[in-house]
Q: What sequence folds into this?
């Protein structure tokens, strides 16, 4: 499904180039549940952004479903993000002025789905994450765990084959975190490919495959039975 | 992404910050209002003056002594070479210039008219019977000056209504004797009420035979001859005729000036057109300032919503979706400001003449259209830069923005 070959990412900070990812190669198959671990600043988020087509690698080849990403235009990347990828962020990243329901509808707006159909598709997802009673609340009126569940519903609304979660439980208490993980593992059982960045060994233990990053390089890639 | 949705998003953004949006719009509102108001005042002046000038009578030609050239201003007549305009000149024009319906001689000036112990300083016009027809001013009671009065230098006077009211009140004035500069004049008529025109009270005037008027002002010349042609197409030929006749009588010198009403109208129109354009231009500058206000607020808005832009891009918004969102926001601000400005501007333009009657206004469709187009253009022009800035944000940087 995903293939990264010799991916390098460097940022220019004034006069010096800093290499955030160097020579990362990785293959992900449909239906995998992967945890990416590593110390802070090791390049986990950068790797997720490249996989999520939010960022382009400085060099190397990235193929998503056999398509070479570096040849795509900005608009084509936007459409890949819209249809193929769901994002869940550590800081939830909901639009503050919109209700939970409207937030879930946003990706559908950019796929040109009419308003009535958007509602019809967004409501069951909010029910699935247990928020049918809070649909019309603004993010500020929701707890962290509830906000993250809205974010998951939003990531799933276009039925993407790949879900990327960058420290999804990092800002949550352990109970809310567990609920989020339950939802994510449940989705994986339904066939969604999921990559989770985490510091929590407990979370990693739930995943069949653990990838370790250090200083922008993959230092470990184990599949547990 | 459909237009309606983009519009809703922009509209919600505007509503979520009502005070700021309102203040931003205020700049455009004031600008558009000023454009409409000033242009309609300029237009109003033009319409008013055109109406008043044509109200004087149509196709008038005014002959004055001395030569003014169109380019060089007034050349004072040098002594001995310039002949005055005389009553005989007017008579000659009337007899020989067949393209003219009338050639009315005029002397005028201010003087004191007294009746009993009441007195009044007023305008005295010495003229002939045809004056009524040429100037569209008619006698109401009694009679106007007759040719016999002119020929015999009769000491008779026709009063404007204002003068009649001031001196006689409700009494009958006909047949009464008044004093005009120490001479006794008998009132033979009272004019029809006319009101003011171009700042002059047409009713605050008295008329005497031109010959008597010359005696009053102690002159043997005329101050002006008003001629009229029945058809506008004949104006040029009539001018040629007048020149021909007068130059023959004036030792082949063109020592007089011919002004046509059309030329006067054209000059006034040009002056007022320039005035209107200047006023509109000044108002346009304030609209421009309003536009800069929009750009300023849009830049703030883009910065504040950097994270929102990042989120939307992560969820699949293309650059043009973001661009459209901010463009529509800027255009909604300027468009709504434009509409409100038009309403207030038109409202004021309609109300002002009710309270200030020396300030006529004329609201024209083109000024409304222009103001609206201009305000929408301001929205587009000043919205493009912030919207582009928003659209070209790098999604990663935008998401990292605190
Ligand atoms: N846009 C950027 N410009 C400069 N440096 C960056 C940028 N993004 C990330 N970095 C740097 O790259 C390194 C890796 O960042 P990140 O991928 O966020 O690490 P992690 O998510 O593993 O903590 C950090 O040292 C960070 O400062
Ligand atoms: Mg990170």
A:
């Amino acid at each position: 499904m995903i293939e990264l070959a010799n991916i390098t990412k460097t940022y220019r900070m004034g006069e010096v180039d800093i290499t955030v990812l160097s020579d990362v190669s990785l293959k992900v198959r449909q239906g995998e549940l992967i945890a990416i671990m590593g110390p802070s600043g090791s390049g986990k988020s950068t790797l997720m952004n490249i996989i999520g087509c939010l960022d382009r690698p400085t060099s190397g080849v990235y193929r998503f479903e056999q398509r070479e990403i570096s040849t795509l235009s900005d608009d084509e990347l936007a459409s890949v993000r819209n249809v193929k990828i769901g994002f869940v962020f550590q800081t939830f990243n909901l639009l503050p002025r919109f209700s939970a329901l409207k937030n879930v509808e946003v990706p559908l707006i950019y796929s040109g789905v009419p308003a009535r159909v958007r509602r019809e598709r967004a409501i069951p997802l909010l029910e699935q994450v247990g928020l049918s009673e809070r649909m019309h609340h603004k993010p500020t009126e929701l707890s962290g765990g509830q906000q993250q569940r809205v974010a998951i519903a939003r990531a799933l609304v276009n039925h993407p084959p790949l879900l990327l979660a960058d420290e999804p439980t990092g800002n949550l208490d352990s109970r809310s975190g567990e609920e989020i993980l339950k939802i994510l593992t449940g989705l994986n059982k339904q066939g969604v490919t999921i990559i989770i960045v985490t510091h929590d060994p407990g979370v990693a233990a739930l995943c069949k495959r653990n990838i370790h990053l250090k200083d922008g390089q993959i230092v470990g890639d184990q599949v547990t039975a | 992404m459909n237009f309606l949705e983009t519009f809703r998003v922009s509209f919600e953004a505007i509503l979520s910050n009502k005070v700021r949006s309102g203040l931003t719009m205020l700049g455009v509102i004031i600008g558009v209002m000023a454009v409409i108001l000033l242009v309609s005042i300029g237009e109003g002046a033009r319409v008013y003056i055109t109406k008043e000038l044509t109200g004087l009578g149509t196709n008038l030609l005014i002959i004055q002594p001395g030569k003014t050239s169109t380019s060089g201003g007034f050349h004072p007549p040098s002594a001995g070479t310039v002949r005055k305009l005389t009553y005989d000149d007017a008579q000659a024009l009337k007899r020989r210039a067949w393209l003219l319906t009338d050639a009315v001689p005029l002397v005028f000036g201010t003087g004191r008219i007294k009746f009993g112990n009441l007195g009044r300083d007023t305008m005295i016009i010495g003229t002939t019977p045809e004056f009524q027809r040429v100037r569209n001013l008619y006698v109401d009671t009694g009679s106007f000056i007759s040719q016999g009065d002119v020929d015999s230098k009769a000491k008779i006077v026709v009063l404007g209504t204002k003068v009649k009211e001031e001196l006689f009140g409700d009494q009958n004035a006909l047949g009464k004797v008044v004093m005009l500069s120490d001479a006794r004049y008998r009132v033979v008529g009272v004019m029809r009420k006319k009101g003011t025109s171009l700042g002059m009270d047409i009713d605050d005037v008295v008329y005497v035979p031109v010959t008597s008027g010359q005696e009053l002002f102690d002159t043997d010349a005329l101050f002006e001859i008003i001629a009229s042609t029945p058809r506008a197409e004949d104006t040029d030929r009539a001018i040629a005729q007048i020149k021909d006749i007068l130059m023959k009588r004036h030792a082949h010198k063109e020592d007089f000036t011919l002004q046509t009403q059309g030329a006067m109208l054209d000059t006034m129109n040009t002056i007022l057109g320039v005035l209107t354009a200047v006023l509109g231009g000044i108002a346009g500058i304030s609209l421009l300032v309003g536009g800069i206000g929009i750009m300023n607020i849009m830049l703030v808005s883009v910065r504040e919503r950097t994270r929102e832009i990042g989120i939307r891009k992560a969820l699949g918004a293309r650059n043009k979706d973001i661009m459209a969102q901010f463009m529509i926001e800027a255009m909604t601000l300027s468009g709504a400001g434009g509409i409100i400005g038009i309403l207030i501007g038109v409202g004021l333009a309609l109300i002002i003449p009710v309270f200030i009657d020396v300030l006529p206004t004329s609201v024209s469709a083109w000024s409304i259209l222009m103001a609206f187009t201009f305000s929408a253009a301001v929205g587009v022009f000043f919205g493009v830069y912030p919207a582009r800035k928003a659209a070209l944000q790098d999604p990663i940087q935008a998401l990292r923005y605190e």
Remarks:
- Residues A 11, 13, 20, 38, 40-46; B 396 surround adenosine-5'-diphosphate (ligand 1) (CB under 6 Å).
- The first strand of chain B starts at residue 60 and ends at 65.
